[in-house]
Amino acid sequence: MSLESEVLERIRPTAEEVRLIDAAAAGLKKRVEDYVRDHDIDVEVRFVGSYAKGTYLSDPDIDLFLLFPETVSSKELERIGLSVGEAIIRGVRMYSEHPYTRGVYNGVDVDLVPSYSIKSADKLRSAVDRTPFHTSYMLDNLKEEQKDEVRLLKGFMKGIGVYGAEPVTRGFSGYLCELLVLHYGGFLKALEGACEWKEGTCIAIDKRGPPIVGPLIVYDPVDQKRNVASAVHLDTMALFIVAAKAYLASPSERFFFPNERRPRSREELQAMADRNGSRIITVEFDRPDVVTDNLYSQLWKTRYALTRKLNDFDYNVLKAAHEMYDDRLAIAFELERDVLSKTHKHMGPPVWVKAADSFLSKWGENPHGPPFIEDGCWAVIAERMYFTAKEMLEEEAAFSGIGRELDPHTMRVRDHESSLNGTDPFLLTELMDPVNSWEV
Fold first, then answer.
1. Tally of CB atoms within 10 A around 3
2. Which helix H or strand E contains 109, and what residues bound it?
């Protein structure tokens, strides 16, 4: 038995799992159809997504769409759609372009989504209106034997940490996995194809649409104006390429089922910092009550903003890592230095410009010495605004472009010693000793 066959035995739903989800799906659909009939609601009830296509893994969820006529206003679509979801699955309200309901029915996770029934993907009212077209396209084009190939690709991507188009992963959606199998022909062929990718690689399943810029462009066969891979970050794409090459060179089930990583001890983390001659600093914020996907986007934004600020003030970020917890958000940085000299060289204007007089007037009584000429410009030894990275972040973070829902008043900054003693060791391990999941 091949390695891929052994993996499939573990990730393909068992006959009992299929029976249970089919029973839950049938019961759910009947409940919804009875409800909309009893309440005289004009909608079509249709399964979409991986369950409808037969490409789901073990422990799947069900996507059930309520397809409204185009004559219904968006406000009414939301109101009625949410009322159905709350009555049937009593779930929580989620938000995409418009609200939908997420809950559980007979032990199975369910998304109950209101959408429009449209005849052509050229006349979309919202992004979710494409989803039924995606389902129909795959049912028409994906061969039965390719469904297991999709499962392998999804399982591989889950194992290496690139599966999912949400901001937490910035990776490959299930639909994109299906398109890659359809384009290349199978799991291994998709990996072989990925080995040839580079930034800007363009894939057209049927025909190419208008020019699109991105790390990876995969034209949606049901809407050629859309890039199915728009969520894929350049780093995520690069990780998939590296994993594909590594698997083809030395196949292992660890790509699908990675070992759980042990966090490094305080002493090990300190030894790594000593080896690099680096220092650690951690920033934490209280977690605001914001939709998780939106909050992950803001966490990435905050990480990049604070990285720029640390670099601007010459602390120089070597690596960064972040994590979201139930009550807080944390970003850890490895820095070249966390303390700077008391003074630095401040360059002024060329000596021949009018502004030179103002510069000399301002710095004439400088306690660290008078201005001097360097490369035709005035220069002066000036005292730094901040000596430590901790002090700088405490003063500057609020003005650095952090996520708008993060409250800088809840921010806590830990210096090197405090980070080693108080920051999650899993996060610091990811920061100081990053390894690929299949290498653990």
1. 13
2. strand 108-116
Tokens of 146: 């390719």
pLDDT band at 60 (very low <50, low <70, confident <90, very high): confident
* Residue range 16-31: mean pLDDT, rounded: 95
Q: With 90 as the cut, is the pLDDT of residue 58 above it?
A: no
Coil, strand, or helix at residue 268?
helix
pLDDT, position 338: 97
The mean pLDDT value of the chain amounts to: 95
Say which DSSP state 409 is in: G
Q: Three-class SS of residue 90?
A: coil
Q: Which of 115, 153, 428 is nearest to 284 (CA)?
A: 428
Fill in the DSSP letter of residue 259: P
pLDDT, tens digit, for every residue of 127-160?
889 999 999 999 999 999 999 999 999 999 999 9
Q: Where are the beta strands (DSSP E) in 237-327?
A: 279-286, 317-324
Q: Give the pair of three-digit tokens for residue 326.
A: 């139930």
To the nearest 10 degrees (0 to 180), the angle between helices 234-249 and 146-160 is 110
CA gap 439, 255 in Å, rounded? 9
Question: Could you tell me the two tokens for 21?
Answer: 């989800």
Beta partners for 373?
378
Q: Which of 346, 137, 293, 315 is nearest to 228 (CA)?
A: 137
First to last CA, the chain: 25
**Position 69, amino acid:** P
Residues in the chain: 440
Question: Rounded CA gap, 153 and 104, in Å?
Answer: 27
The two structure tokens encoding residue 409: 């008043």
CA–CA gap between residue 11 and residue 431 (Å, rounded): 31
Is residue 126 very low, low, confident or very high in pLDDT (cuts 50, 70, 90)? confident
Please state the rounded mean pLDDT for residues 329-346. 97
